[in-house]
Amino acid sequence: MRFGNKTEKGREPMKNKQNTILLILLLLAFNVGLISGCSRNKDYSNVAENPNISIPGYESLEFNADKVKQSVDFYNPEENTCYFRINLVVDGNSIWTSDLIKPGDKISTIKLKEILDVGTYSAVLQYECFSLKDKSPLNGSNIELTINVN
What we know:
Distance between the termini: 87 Å
Oligomer: single chain
């Protein structure tokens, strides 16, 4: 047996094994970063669209009377592969519409187009869904709910 860079039959030198293992680990770490989408500016051009879209449901919203700014908890689930546009409709009139919402993004405050008086209102949250790749329309959904204004 000899020490150094020479090898016995069928054995690699220890230094080469360590370098190979290190290279494999670095390549794996790099690939995991690419697969998980670790990036500040997500590029959605290569995202495979999932036909299953998760739409959050709400039974009711609680609003404050005599105010146009209202607190909400609207969001596009992170696992979705589409943008959302949400439209809040009361008595057939749109009182608020969002911009496009990326997967994982949330909206906590909205500004209504009109003030709602104290009372209970039947409403619909209309979800429009759009492709991440080219913003083409996908299926949507309507969620019926109640707005309680106090």
